[in-house]
Structure formats: C-alpha cells, structure tokens
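Rotation project, supervised by the postdoc (A.L.). Task for the rotation student: set up a whole-complex structure prediction and record inputs and outputs verbatim in this book. Inputs entered:
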Amino acid sequence: MPHTIHDIASALGLEAVGDTSIVIDGANEPADASATDIALAMKPEYAAGLAKGQARVAMLWEGADWQGLGLEAALFVGRSRYAMAGLSQIIDPGQHYPVGIHPSAYVDPTAELGEGVTVGPFAMVGPRARIGAGSVLGPQCFVGADVVLGEAAMIHSGARLMARVRAGDRLIVQPNAVIGGDGFAFVTPEVSGVEKARETLGDQGDVKSQSWTRIHTLGAVRLGHDVEVGSCSTIDSGTIRDTQIGDGTKIDNQVMIGHNCIIGNDCLLCGHVGLAGSVTVGNSVVLGGKTGVSDNTTIGDNVICGAATIVLSKIPAGRVMLGYPAMKMDQHLDTYKHLRRLPRLARQVAELQKAVSNEDTSD
Amino acid sequence: MPHTIHDIASALGLEAVGDTSIVIDGANEPADASATDIALAMKPEYAAGLAKGQARVAMLWEGADWQGLGLEAALFVGRSRYAMAGLSQIIDPGQHYPVGIHPSAYVDPTAELGEGVTVGPFAMVGPRARIGAGSVLGPQCFVGADVVLGEAAMIHSGARLMARVRAGDRLIVQPNAVIGGDGFAFVTPEVSGVEKARETLGDQGDVKSQSWTRIHTLGAVRLGHDVEVGSCSTIDSGTIRDTQIGDGTKIDNQVMIGHNCIIGNDCLLCGHVGLAGSVTVGNSVVLGGKTGVSDNTTIGDNVICGAATIVLSKIPAGRVMLGYPAMKMDQHLDTYKHLRRLPRLARQVAELQKAVSNEDTSD
Amino acid sequence: MPHTIHDIASALGLEAVGDTSIVIDGANEPADASATDIALAMKPEYAAGLAKGQARVAMLWEGADWQGLGLEAALFVGRSRYAMAGLSQIIDPGQHYPVGIHPSAYVDPTAELGEGVTVGPFAMVGPRARIGAGSVLGPQCFVGADVVLGEAAMIHSGARLMARVRAGDRLIVQPNAVIGGDGFAFVTPEVSGVEKARETLGDQGDVKSQSWTRIHTLGAVRLGHDVEVGSCSTIDSGTIRDTQIGDGTKIDNQVMIGHNCIIGNDCLLCGHVGLAGSVTVGNSVVLGGKTGVSDNTTIGDNVICGAATIVLSKIPAGRVMLGYPAMKMDQHLDTYKHLRRLPRLARQVAELQKAVSNEDTSD
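Outputs recorded:
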C-alpha cells in the first residue's frame, strides 16, 4: 500500500524534511532500495549504501545531512528500532489471505463470528466458539469448541486453538502453533522411581517396572490482550484450572509451556524456551533462547535469563541469570573464566603438593 | 456429562459418604468450584478454599471431617494424583469433534475404517490405511498410505501420520505432531570432516567443501499399545527397519526422536527431549525436559535423567543422571557446588603459592 | 517399484555378480529380508543374518564371498553409506500422495503451476505463487502469496510456506515445517532492562515495567537449491531483507532459525538447533543437535559444534567446538575431566593449607 512521507511522519510523530509528498510502498536497506522504497539508514555507517540504491527518501539519524546524501526527502528518528516498529506496521505487506468466510471453511452453526471476521480455506471453527470482530482465522487453522477470542485476532495457517481456549484482543498466533493441547501428566499406582529420586536427590530406591496412568486435562488456556505465540510453539491446557498467559507477553517459535503455568504480563520467551508444568513467571521477565525451567518453580518479576539458562530452583525478582544450573550472570562469567583455567590450577596444586612434601622430607 | 457421586465412587473404587445421589458435571479447585463441580481438596491445605466456592461435594484426603467442612457428600482418596487420573478420565470434557465421517474428509477408497471411526473435516486417509474400531481421526489430520492403527486411536487436529506408520491400541497423538517424517541422513562421497573430528575428538583434518547426498528413508515407525505423542513432537522413520516405541511410553511436546531409535516400554520423554539417530532406550526410563542423547547411544532400563541432561555416552541401567555432560546426579550436585566456589579456590591456591614461595626464599 | 540387479548396478556404478536379472522391490536388514528384498550386509559382521532371511541377493563389502554366503547375485560397495544413498533413492517407496491437482485443493487463479505439478487434498496455493515443474505440494500444505519454488519441490503434508518465500530447485519440506513466519522482534519505547544487562553483563539498572511494541516483518525467506527442512522446523522471515539459506544446506527437525540469519552452503543443522536473530553461518558448517547460537553471532566456514554447544560469541573458521559456553572440543574434554575431579582438588588444597599453616606455626 502506498503512503506519502507526510502521512508516515504524521502517523509516527517524526520530523520530515524535503518533498514530503513523495509516495513509497516499501522499505529496504539503502543499497537494495528501489525508487519507491524508503531506505533505512538510521546510523551513519549505513549511509554509504544510499549511493548504491535508488531511494529518493530515507529514514535517518537525527542531525544527518540529508541533502548531502543526495536525498529528496527524509525522516529523522531517535531510537531507531522503535521508529522501525511504527514504520513496519504501516507498510507490512501481510499474507494476502482470501478475505471473508471462504466457501470451503467449516464453521459450526452454533459458532458466533463478529463483524468482518475472515475464515480461510479449509479452516474449521467448532461449536459455540465466539470470535471477535475483525479477526482473521487463516487457511487450514483449527478453532475448537467454546473457544473465545477478542477483537482483531490473527490466527495463521495451520495453528490449532483447542477447546475452551480464551484470549483477549489482538492475539497473534503464528503458523502451526498449538494452544490447548492436553497436559503431560501421568501417575503410577504406587510411588514412582522419579518421585523417590527427587526426594533423595539421586536415589530412586528399588526400581520396579510400573505403567503410567493418564491424568486427563480438564482446564484450558487463558491468554490476555496483545499476546503473540510463535510458529510451532505449544501451550498446554491446565489440569484443573487454566494455564495463563498475561497481557502483552510475546512467545517466540518452538516454545513449550506446560500445563498449569502462570506467566505474567509483558514477558518475552525466546525460541526453544521450555517451561515444565506449574511454573510461575512474574511480569516483564525475559527468558533467552533455550532457557528451561523445571516444574513447580517460581521466577520473580523482571528476571532476565541469558541463552540456555537451566533453572532448577526459584529465582528472586530482578536477577540476571545464566548457565546450567542457573547462576547470577556476573558470578557465572567469573566462575567459567576459572573453569577454563582449571587444568592449570590442577597442575599448580600438584606442584604445591610436591613442594610442600619435599619440605616435609627435607625437614 | 453428569455423573452421580455414587457412580464415580464405584468406578474408581473409592469410599463415598453423604448424599451420593448428588450429580456433578465437572471438577474444580475448591474456591472456583460451582454447585455442579466436585471440589478437589485432597490435602488439608486446600480445604480453606471450600468456604469460598459453591461445591456441595469434594474429593478429600482420608480422615477429613467432611461434615465439618460443610459438604453434603465426599469421596476419600489415598494417593491423590492417582485418584485424579480416574476422576479426570470420567469427566474429561473432550474436544467435541464432529462425530462420524465428515463429508469434507478425503478417505481413499482402499482405506479400511473399523466400526464407529470418526474422520473429521478436511482430514485425509491414504490408500490401504486400516483404522481400528472406535478411533477418532480429528479435523485436518493426515493418515498416510498403509498406516495401520489399532482400536480407539485419538489423532488430534493437524497431526501427521506418514506412510506405513503402525501403532497398537489407544494411540493418542496431540495436535500438529508428526510421526514418520523422513530421517535426517546424509553422506559425503569421501570421509567428511565430522567423521574425522569424531575419531580424533576434535581434529577434522584438512577440511574441504563437500556436498551432502541424501539417504532416503525406507523404514517407518512402529508404536506399541497405549502410546501418547505430544503436540509438535516428531518421530522420524527408520532408514531400513522401523523406528520403534514400546507399549505405554508417553512422549511430551516438541520431542524429537531420530531415525532408527528403539524406545522401550513405559518410558516418559518430557518436553524438548531430543534423541539423535539410532539411540536405544530401555524400559521405564524417564528423560527430563530438554534431555539430549547423541546418536548410537544406549540408555539402560530405569534410568532417570534430570532436566537438560546431555548424554554423550552409554548409561548403565538404574542410574540417575544430570548435567552437561551427564554425570550421576549426586556427583553432579557435589561437583557444581565446588564449581561455584572455584574462584575462591583459585585465590587460595595463589596464596599457597605465595606462602610456599616465601618459605623457599626464606630458607 | 521393481528393479533388476543389473539396472541398480548400472545406476549406481557398482560391480554386480551372479544372476543380475533377479528383480527386487525393497531393501532390508539380512535377517528380515524377503525373497524380493536386497539384503544390506555391507560389513562382515552383518553377514551372519543372511542365513536367517530369505534374500537371494545382497549388497556386500568388497571382496566378500557371495557364493559362500549362499547368494544368487551380489553388488559390491566401497563406502557403504554412500552406496546406501544411491540404492535408497532408487527404491524409496514414497508417500503415495494422490497425483495431479486434487479437486478439493484451493489454487488461486493467479498462481502459476509448472508442468506435472501435484497439489494434494485441502492444499492451498496463494495468489501469484509460481511453482516449478514436477513439484509436489502435499495434502493440507500451504503455499502463500508470491511464493516462488523451483523445479521438483516436495512439500509434505501440513508444511507452511508463507508469503514471498523463494526457493531453488529440489526443495524438500517435511510435514508441519514453517518457512516464513514473522520474526520475533519487539522494542520498548525507552532502553530496556535487557539492553542494559547486555551492556553491563549482568546489571539491568533500575528495572521498570515496559510493554513491547512489535516490529513487523517486511522481508521473507530465500532458500538455495537442494535445501531440505525437517518436520516442525521454523525459519522466520527477515525484518527488512530476506533470511537466507544456501545451496545444499540440510535442516533437521524442530530447528529454529531466527529472522535475518544468513546460512551458507552445504551446512547440516541437526535436531533442536536454534539460531537467534541475525546469526551468520559460513559454508560446510555442522551444528550438532540442540546447538544454540545467540543473536548477531558469526560462525566461520567448516566449523563443527558437538551436541548442545551453546555459542555466545564468534567462532573462527575450521574450529571444532563443544560445551556451554562453547570451547574448543579438546579443551572442553580436558577441562571437564578436571571438573569431575574438582571436589578432590578442593580437598587437596584444604590439606595443603593445613600443612603450610602448620609449618608456619611450627617455625
């Protein structure tokens, strides 16, 4: 969709200079930009590319000499990633899913679709589902019985929202994500080896073959407003009460959230994060890629875990963690610096033993 | 579906007291329970919630004073999670998939469907597939050529069972899981850098660009009775013979099982577990979340691996393991306790060096 | 499909002996082989199984006494896995997807399908997509707007190729993989705790609740020739320019490739590998299962990472790495050998302290 520089500047609250009537329909890196792209050169080091591309207009750092760079117009930004968020929303080319209720879709007659809802080819909407106005249920997606979605949901192709899932407004679910699969909950008739090993921290007692009986899932998943769930991520339903995801929490691809978890508001869970059952996560928590949290563990507000942190016990609010098992990040960096020198330390100790033992002998 | 307390007590072999003709249609935590829910208060600490909810009946710990708690009826349980398994099976609200063979489904004319089989909207059943009586093939699922399923399978929306997969009775496959994708097997014309690095434990020799030739997958996946596979989990077909999963083994979400693996009976594989190709796992093994096992490795019966254990070599039967690389759990706990103190240990060694060196000088 | 031994030998350039007119239609391990299978006994230790099976013909190691093994014909191979690649391609039984454009498929009228393209039941092809000759778009797959695929693509059931994805020839996408989901890119209006913690390596400053604004995805994914993507793997689109995967690169199951990554040619990325955003990977790199790479990190040509390596900083070309955080593999093996002995080392230091302190006292 084409936009004038004037309109973009107004929408984003940015300063614009030059011929702001120029129309653009895309954005690109400076060297790859066409004459209808806005070039993105928000740092001086990107400016050199402008000469190689065709852009007439660019988004520049504050104070840049736009005319010296050969541009006909420019927008100036402070925090460039934040400006990028605004611009990208305006010019997002989107998926071009067919609009409206596709004749091939299967919508249960008891489902209620709000105004302007799209249901794509081969999508299914189950009984009593209620879908908020302006929502898009993409091709081949599944929206199960009694699901309730707020306004302006975007459910991409192949995503599965199982029975009784409820979400606030503006839910985004990327392709092939699953919300509301059954929890992984099994029990043996007698105390199991795992239960014993946990109590004793390592001794499972007399192990005996036992088979696992399934605890069925009675709860569902409840998500707040402005939640996003990445491709192939899975959020399991709660056993009795619902698994919960707070407002504004963003979940990357291939994230696994077990049954009964409660995640606060404004969290970021990066790719391959895994939360076992009944984990509680506070508000504004950031879990780096591949972070794992064992079951029944609590993570306080504002905690940050670096990549691949393995959390086996409670983390107080505000901590920055790293490693397996998780340590405070500065302690981790110090400890692993010494770990790399450990072979040398062992040699030093051996020499000391020799020195001290020689003294003993020589006494 | 409504049930009397009397019927539930009979089905689960539990003691019931009070007005056992009361009918319930759900279960809930005490404070959230409605008048038609059974409240779950299997430990004394949960009893306080009963006063806040509306439940007339509860599942209680043995010896609880049900009348003192204001209840009209009660069930008493010993091992509460095991009782929960039975109760949850009775009152599982399920997915409400449309029953029967949906007119939009595509069933190859050579496929054989047992009595009472459901095939959901936009599901496909391939040529010569044979599906046992009472099975449910959910909406948009794929059941490929020559697949054989036992009785009472539950294949959820978007799951893919590729050609020649065979399973026993009561298979459960959660949404978007894939059973029988092609194995990840590639070979270079000459010995590759990886092969050399494995032999030398680190030296890949003169590295040279080589391209990978695909080894096609000829085998399939064979699963026993009572297997469950979680959302977005993937089990690859074997190269020549089948990949095998034993009776009663339960697989959580986003688990990856490589080609040629042989998993025994009654195992639990938690979220994000990854087994490379040709791994052999015994019976009653529990692999905690994010456990990884490198290819051609054997894990004995009754082994337990804690969260994120990385297994690079064989584990004998009965071991309880943790860490990267895997150690016995008690050794791991001891070792990492010392790892945290390593910076202090290094300082102590430095002081000793100084002390001993001073002595040398002073001698 | 049946083949004579003569034809197989010609196709693979192998030496054949005996009655090469014998026809086979499958391959199997020696003990499981039927009379129409070729037995695979490429090493002497597998020869014993031949007597238990029914095979009349086998693929044998060079110099094997095929007549002494009771065979009527034989093929001889040098590098057995490489020969297996050729044989398996010839006798791959495949998925038996219905051939041609299935009447239930939805193909946008502006899409262009090359000669002999198959589109399976309930598959969707979006507007302006261009699909190369001989490609197979499997059942229930999604090929989005403006997608361009080369010749002979094989897109399996449930795979999703989102808008503007482009690939070379012979792309293989396993079931339920997602190529071209939106990137995981969010920004706060002011500098976030994560940004501060990264700068200071652990101190996020005065933490304050902030909400995340979405950076929309404008780029797509571009893949070279001969790329394979495993089941439930996800490759996100780039923010501005495309995420790129080079020729001949093979990606296993449940691999996560973040937005803006650039992967070279002939790489192998094993199961559960995760690359955060803007990672650059050279040519002929092998990343073992569960390897993780943090964002904006560069990995040189010919690097090999062992299982579960966590890469937090740049790796020069040719390195063989292991561990968390990544070390050179030989250094890792040495360091962790000492880590296991760390409790003993600590005791030795304590004894030395005592000895030295006694000396001091006794002086």
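Student's summary: The longest strand of chain A covers residues 37-41.
Supervisor addendum: Residues 3-91 of chain A form a domain with the Udp-n-acetylmuramoylalanyl-d-glutamate--2,6- Diaminopimelate Ligase; Chain: A, domain 1 fold (CATH 3.40.1390.10).
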